[in-house]
Amino acid sequence: MSVKENLAEIKENIGQACKHTGRNIEEISIIAVTKYVSTERAEEALDAGLIHLGENRKEGLLEKYETIGDRATWHFIGTLQSRKVKDIINQVSMIHSLDRKSLAKEINKRASSPVPCFVQVNISEEDSKHGLQASEVESFVDELQTYENVKIVGLMTMAPHIEDEEKLRGVFRQLRALRDRIRNKGYAHAPCEYLSMGMSNDYKLAIEEGATHIRLGSSLVGE
Ligand SMILES: *Cc1c(COP(=O)(O)O)cnc(C)c1O
To answer: Is position 222 within any domain?
Structure first.
């Protein structure tokens, strides 16, 4: 299937999820996760009208960036080692995987202007998943106030690979409630408006529960 065909179907589903919940489709950014696919396929995504591309490894990002450059808006969505921050900081527009103070410190040091970051939260508490525990997030955000170049724009999570819709909704709702609490504090460094949640198998539910950034790989560009 072409990216264009996949996107048409996905937009249809997004439209329905928005309709069910009275949301505006404009609130949702689709990030095409290109980690499994070639640079050519990533370019096909741009040709289909997408602008946000997501990569989870430095190497994949830089390889595609070499050809595509700033024709795309780049999102870093994977575990980020502090020593690699300097290699990607000028290429990426948003980092979705801020999960520790040492990483915030390194971003702050290497960036020349504030970097929009999502704090990654391990809502489902699976051992295999990265991210802070929900109970740690508020104090973590509070501690980042002195880092001028780290701007907390929202929270991110990866839901477990399960079919149970109510459980999935529960994960998304918890992230949203946490987002609301932090947003309501009115921090200058942490407007915390956004929710990066929803992947190929759960994005419809995520949108119904408030997602603003959905990260789609297999269903959009393929695996
Ligand atoms: C791979 C990946 C995705 C996309 O996963 P699909 O299920 O293929 O849509 C989204 N978010 C993160 C963090 C990923 O690593």
So the answer is: no
Tell me, what's the pLDDT at 222? 93
Say which residues have a Cβ less than 8 Å from residue 147's Cβ, sequence separation at least 6.
104, 105, 107, 108, 189
CB atoms within 10 A of CB 29: 18
Q: What's phi and psi for 69, nearest 5 deg?
A: 55, -140
Atom 12, ligand 1: which residue's CA is nearest?
77
Ligand 1 centroid to residue 185 C-alpha, Å:
30
Distance 216 CA to ligand 1 centre (A): 6
pTM over 0.85? The answer is yes
Residue-wise pLDDT tens digits, 60-85 = 999 999 999 999 999 999 999 999 99
Span from the CA of 199 to the centroid of ligand 1 (angstroms) = 6
Residue 221 belongs to a domain = no
Residues lining ligand 1, CB < 6 A? 33, 35, 56, 77-78, 158, 199-200, 215-219
Q: What is the CATH number of the domain that holds 34?
A: 3.20.20.10
Q: Residues 22-44: pLDDT tens digits?
A: 999 999 999 999 999 999 999 99
Residue nearest (by alpha carbon) to ligand 1 atom 1: 217
